[in-house]
Sequence to fold (354 residues):
Amino acid sequence: MDPRPTILVTGATGFIGGWIVETLHLTGRARPRAGIRTWTRAARLGRFPVDIAPCDVLDREQIEAAMQDAPIVVHCAIGSRDVIVEGTRNMLAVAESMGVKRFVHLSTTEVYGEVSGDVDESCPYRWTGQEYNASKIEAEQVVWEYAKKGVPVTVLRPPIVYGPFGKDFTLRIAHRLESGQWGVFEGIGGGMCNLIYVTDVVAAVMLAAEDDAAVGEAFNINGPEAITWNEYFERFNEALGLPPQRTIGVNHLRLRAIVMEAARAGAKSILTRFERPIKALYKQSSLVRSRAVQFEKSVISTPRLAELNLYNRQARYRDAKARTLLGYRPRVDIDTGLELSVRWIRHLGIEAFM
Fold:
């Protein structure tokens, strides 16, 4: 009989969840059980002979089946507000009833909101008006509610996670840089870019799942370097082998963001109402396809207003608590992380992820 524990990982078709499952399998550290919502996104997991279980976090029957004989749960599932908040509640309710030994909840430093300076775990929640921020705060509140009931929980708060299979801060940035519409920003982009390579997040998850000192605690985890967003764009641009970036004024950028926010909303409304005829036109007309590609490139290369605030945020998320209690040490510097990310992008072809 295999003495290794089974670890259920929710959101296993996602960026971080997928990395956790693969790492557990390849290192032999534990037996991963990949909790998924839909089979259509499980191709990445299918590269390895891992246990895959249906686990829609809004379906308690699926959760109960997936959590059978899994003493450790790593909860990474994300999505709508219901998925983040009620899904977390469902997972914890089942974990309580089944007596799990450890429940690791992957949160985010976004729960701190718009802050400046050094930020540690004593910083209170701050609401920004953004749905993601509110959802993750509410999910954490549910976690602490179940901690009081005796569920052995640990909360991890990573900041900007990048690396292969990452979309928001890896592929999307690469698309923007390659579009030629991105650059170094005047008056914006000087905020701290708290980057952590995905394997360092996985290492922190493993420590939290195994160390008794993690129970009942929240931990910031961060990467080894502190750079600005403009520095990240420049170093990523160089790693991609692209020409030097142009300088973009902040007023132009804000105006473009406002215009594109309206265009996004309008396009979504039109597509919702006329999806079938629009798809038919797309298939039949090369002009429509060309216009759609141009619009998509404009959307990709234009930041949202919330991103502009992020690029100016002067916060550094301190991880001294994780280093002291768990022995956490980030190992991947930014240049190495970017080199690995670019190799992956070049190997698979960036257009495959448009």
Notes: The longest strand covers residues 31-36. The mean pLDDT is 87.
